[in-house]
Specification:
CATH superfamily of chain B: Aldolase class I
Radius of gyration of chain B: 18 Å
Number of helices of chain B: 9
CATH architecture of chain B: Alpha-Beta Barrel
Strand content of chain A: 25-35%
Oligomer: heterodimer
Shape of chain B: globular
Distance between the termini of chain B: 30 Å
Helix content of chain A: 10-25%
Largest interface: A-B, 30 and 37 residues
CATH architecture of the largest domain in chain A: 3-Layer(aba) Sandwich
CATH class of the largest domain in chain A: Alpha Beta
Largest sheet of chain B: 8 strands, parallel, barrel
CATH topology of the largest domain in chain A: Rossmann fold
CATH superfamily of the largest domain in chain A: Nucleotide-binding domain of ferredoxin-NADP reductase (FNR) module
Structural class of chain A: alpha/beta
Number of domains of chain B: 1
Strand order of the largest sheet of chain B: 3-4-7-8-9-10-15-16
Structural class of chain B: alpha/beta
Number of helices of chain A: 7
Distance between the termini of chain A: 32 Å
Chain lengths: ~260, ~300
């Protein structure tokens, strides 16, 4: 078990909960941990921070019994951490466009830092419904050059008015983008997949599904033939090609029945 | 010279090799079952299907134990027979070696599940008579020879497909139960299901699993499974499918020597789907070294 070291309010719904965990601090961008909130739930979360001193974090929006409890976490609370698990994002010198919506910014923050460190060109689009829904604007501003950070809000209360996909599409057309990385609402990610494949740009997305084991046993987290816990949570265009009837369309509930994403 | 053959036949079924995906592991969807087969499993058993959809228990539903085991109380989550039948209808004509595991609260419920599924294209049923962590549909059924007989008889009367009765290791009456299943029409036995077990977290001071009790699988139970298979082989004449803690070729061969005609793998999938190819290769190398031409030559050689 790990102890919560701090809980930081990020915006009106999202909190970042910090803890010390040596194994997680050796994670790579896009990897996730199974977080256990004793008495409530165990659920997968992308690591939003990890440093060489062992300080790690997950960034949580309340949506179920476990995450609902976790946003209320206080310094000293016990939580269980298993992992890090899963296939990370590709980190190389390709010209990168990162597009995130909501808590989807969580895995993109360590990715942006790693890509900049690698020496590639990195642009970031942060999307949100409205200004108070934006996440990690400050952190991303510290991670990438000011001129490479773009904000969109659906209602136009801040940054560009419109969807992050619209801005991303025009950027893909105007700039040399080597690879699109995304995490956020699946419908947004599917749209970006279609745009990227049409434009001949590489594509990687971090998806989310209900998980029980996190280690390739239970089969709850399938997207087509992919087991998200092992083949993902980052899937590339090749992985997704045979799963387009599910990606951005359908997911399975805890019983295995299809429901809309 | 022709190399050793991995082909096996049991209960009138023919498989490319003796390895099977065990029930409850990844196989809740047809794409996952297909992937196991494409990755080298001779056949794949679905997650247990019941009459109605079940969400299962809240997480934590799985925990790795310090004795090399995996403890689970997933709670028979499944989409229900009707939806699973629909999903199976999509692979009609592809002749996939799929076996469907089913569970129920008694002969009537088992029969209704069979009635819904039976027209679909799959090879056989595995009757889950032994889930150690769901009340009313697990060991209450599988630990009572009379109830086992009534379930097998009921299912037998509804289908022509072969039936494998999956037995619980959590009873001293396993031979008696196996005999009851065979006398009632089971074509084979799967031995064994998980061992009823528990883990307690010393920090929270409470059982780790939400359901408290679970079923143990993996390395920790292999020797237990082996003894049950060995015992059953001496007592019953139908083929036995071995199950419990097999994760490499040596384990698989050991089970066949004890009397298993085929071997299921489940927890081993933490190594990835590639584990089927690895184990198959290992078995072939062993057969070549020991000059076995057919898998059948090894079955029961330990007696």
């Amino acid at each position: 078990m790990r102890r919560v070291t701090k809980n930081v309010r990020e915006n009106r719904t999202i909190n970042t909960v910090y803890f010390n965990d040596e194994e997680s601090s050796r994670a790579r961008p896009g990897q996730f941990v199974m977080v256990w909130e004793p008495g409530y739930d165990e659920f997968p979360m992308s690591l939003s921070n990890y440093d060489s001193k062992g300080l790690c974090s997950v960034t949580v929006k309340p949506w179920g019994p476990g995450s609902g409890e976790m946003v209320k976490a206080r310094r000293g609370d016990l939580i269980g951490i298993r992992g890090p698990y899963g296939r990370p994002f590709t980190v190389d010198k390709s010209s990168a466009l990162l597009v995130g919506g909501g808590t989807g910014l969580a895995p993109l923050l360590p990715l942006a830092k790693a890509l900049v460190k690698e020496g590639g060109r990195v642009a970031v689009v942060i999307g949100g419904r409205s200004k108070p829904d934006l996440l990690f604007e400050e952190q991303m501003r510290r991670a990438v050059r000011r001129k490479n950070l773009f904000i969109t809000t659906d209602d136009g209360t801040y940054g560009h008015k419109g969807f992050p996909t619209d801005l991303a599409e025009s950027m893909i057309k105007e700039r040399r983008v080597g690879r699109v990385y995304t995490c956020g609402p699946e419908i947004m990610m599917r749209k970006l997949y279609d745009i990227s494949v049409t434009a001949g740009v590489e594509f990687e997305a971090s998806l989310e599904r209900g998980m029980k084991c996190g280690i390739g046993i239970c089969g709850s987290c399938t997207v087509g033939k992919n087991l998200l816990c092992r083949d993902g949570a980052v899937l590339d265009a090749k992985d997704l090609k045979d799963s387009l009837d599910e990606f951005g369309v359908l997911q399975r509930d805890q019983s295995g029945r299809y429901i809309k994403v | 010279m022709v190399g050793p053959s991995l082909r096996v036949s049991l209960a009138g079924l023919r498989f490319e090799n003796p390895l099977m995906l065990a029930s409850g592991i990844v196989g809740v969807t047809v794409p996952s079952l297909t992937r196991a087969i494409d990755s080298g499993a001779g056949s794949a058993v679905s997650k247990s299907i019941g009459l109605e959809p079940r969400e299962g228990y809240r997480n934590p539903t799985l925990v790795a134990t310090q004795d090399g085991g995996l403890l689970n109380a997933v709670g028979l989550s499944n989409p229900g027979a009707r939806i699973f039948a629909e999903e199976l209808s999509e692979v009609r004509g592809r002749h996939l070696p799929i076996i469907v595991s089913i569970f129920g609260g008694g002969p009537v419920e088992f029969s209704r599940v069979v009635d819904i599924l039976d027209s679909q294209e799959f090879l056989a049923y595995e009757l889950n008579l032994s889930c150690p962590h769901v009340e009313g549909v697990g060991t209450e059924i599988g630990h009572d020879p009379e109830v086992v007989a009534s379930v097998v008889k009921a299912v037998r009367s509804r289908t022509k497909k072969p039936l494998f009765a999956k037995l619980s290791p959590n009873t001293h009456k396993i031979v008696e139960i196996a005999r009851a299943a065979v006398a009632s029409g089971a074509d084979g036995l799967t031995a064994v299901n998980t061992v009823r077990a528990m883990a307690i977290n010393v920090e929270t001071t409470k059982p780790t699993l939400t359901h408290k009790y679970g079923g143990l699988s993996g390395d920790a139970i292999r020797s237990i499974a082996l003894a049950k298979i060995y015992e059953l082989y001496e007592e019953v004449k139908v083929p036995i499918i071995g199950c419990g803690g097999v994760s490499n070729w040596e384990h698989a061969v050991e089970m066949m020597l004890a009397g298993a005609s085929a071997v299921e793998m489940g927890t081993a999938l933490y190594q990835g789907y590639g584990v089927f190819q690895d184990v198959n290769r290992g078995i072939v190398a062993y057969m070549r070294r020991k000059k076995f031409r057919k898998v059948q030559e090894m079955v029961g050689l330990g007696h």
